[in-house]
Amino acid sequence: MALTLSACGEAGGGDDAGASDNNMIGLLLPENKTTRYETFDRPLMEKKIKALCSDCEVKYNNASQDTEQQKKQFDALVTQGVKTIILDAVDATATKSWVDQAADKGVKVVAYDRLAEGDVAAYVSYDNEKIGELQGQGMVDALGSDAKNSNVVMINGSPTDPNAALFKKGAHSVLDKQVKKVVYEQDIPDWSPDEANKKMAAAITSLGKGGFDGVYSANDGMAGGISTALKKSGIKDVPLGGQDAELAGLQRIVKGDQSFTIYKAIKPEAETTASIAVALHQGKSIDKFAPTTVDSKSKKGIPAKLYGAKVVTKENIKDTIIKDKVYKVSQICTSQFAAACKAAGLE
């Protein structure tokens, strides 16, 4: 069934001449260990797509961190005749052949959050190197006046996620100049909290309890595993940073077990991606949604929108997370954290 303007709102400029003959938009997310995908990304995109295109059907799958499974999901969408696919790749380096083959068949692939290799039509994410810089500066600030004399452990993200490399690069650009030394560093496959826990335990064994002064964790999920390892060894008051403003991370911040996280507003990222997908589905311009361009290893000049982020600490949770209605005080301040919340002025 052809889509009409009355059904699909104003997702972009132009007319409906290039609209797809079916009403399906694919949405493929990489994993469900990180709480954001099922809690925020998926429902936000599905809601926005429906708002712009009431007749559109979102064909959703989660790959559970399995690249082969995601390829099967992607190929199935193409076989079903889906002409627009939002792809958050498990392994962005593995997607080139399937994205290129789909593009040859007229399928528009929107790379979401991670810049998938291949002939993608657009990319929506954050300025990930700058996020790494924020993480590095957050650690320096948490270390305070003694940062120059401090040794830091770095637990980085998955080596198959191009964002992880950018976070690491950005963090190093700050830490290498402003702390004494990065004394232990590991990349963690699949962003696994359990593996991060093991590597932190190995770092403690290797360096000794007093051999480091702060721990950089590339995200909040891994920070949870790291925090557990620190507690098990009886290590307290060591700055620990994360990313994603996950509920558990925010609760650790309130309690004092984590120093900061990086708050990336998911709603604008998800809604812009949905708007681009609907516009592409209708054959319309995406210029107003993707005002800049980026290059991948396999394609130059990809239309893109990159959002910024903020460091969140105990002192500004109220003015960021609560103000933006990401979480309510009641969600953060459960009975287990009531006293800590009261002390932090969250009531």
From TrEMBL:
A Pfam cross-reference name: Peripla_BP_4
Keywords annotated in UniProt: Signal
GO CC terms, sorted: outer membrane-bounded periplasmic space
Molecular function GO labels: carbohydrate binding
Keyword Signal: yes
Location within or outside the cell: Cell envelope
Domain of life: Bacteria
Main location: other
SUPFAM superfamilies in UniProt: Periplasmic binding protein-like I
Domain Periplasmic binding protein residue range list: 25-284
Protein name: ABC transporter substrate-binding protein
Organism: Streptomyces armeniacus
Lineage per the UniProt record: Bacteria, Bacillati, Actinomycetota, Actinomycetes, Kitasatosporales
